Amino acid sequence: MFRVTLPAAGAGIKVESLPGFPYEPVDWGRRKVGGAYGFLYAFDSLYMANMRGFYPIRDTDGDDQFDEFTLLKKLDMGYEHSAHSIIPTADGKGLYLVSGNFTRVAKGTTSAQPPVWQEDTLHPVIPDPSGHAVGLKPPGGWICRISPDGQDWKMIASGFRNSVDIGLNREGELFTYDSDMEFDVGVPWYRPARINHVTSGAEFG
Q: How many whole angstroms from its chain centre is CA 6?
């Protein structure tokens, strides 16, 4: 983790390495990877989402260095389909966190959707012959509203493949861009990359 201080006119960029940030590398093929996908500074904390958890990070003694790292929620490792961006809610009283479909909804999370996850199809489900995401059950990728203290998590929408970022328009409505399933290009059920208007309780399949 690095902090970059932008220069005044004619000065150089200052780059500092910040110690202590949670780093739990995971095996990914022949590599080990780790780090954070989402950061947001709000409520006197720097919130961080990585492949294993959701943290508030604070400077408790005012010396301009982060020294408190608290795991609020343990998250399943989802590689590049893990928990991603964090933004403030429209009312400024909470946080939104978006995750891809490999990270399951965290324990203790309530939902704006009724938990009636069924394979609602006329024919039996055909798992991906290449093995991708076989065994992953609904809900898929999700968006949660989180209280500043991290104790109250509510899933407000789900059914995404790998939404990485979220944003609010000037009316406070939530939107996300979702990825396609590139292996399905050319088949009847292919769904292209798309922008979704995320309303409370929405399920995107």
A: 28
Alpha carbons 83 and 54: distance in angstroms, whole number: 9
20-70 pLDDT, tens per residue?
A: 998 888 888 888 888 789 999 999 999 999 988 999 999 999 999 999 999
State the total domains in the chain.
Answer: 1
SS3 146: strand
Pair 71, 57: CB distance under 8 Å: no
Q: Cα–Cα distance between 44 and 52 in angstroms, integer?
A: 22
Q: What is the CATH number of the domain that holds 96?
A: 2.120.10.30
Question: Measured between alpha carbons, how far is 59 from 118 in angstroms, rounded to an integer?
Answer: 45
- Structure pTM? 0.91
d(CA 47, CA 150) in angstroms, rounded, equals: 10
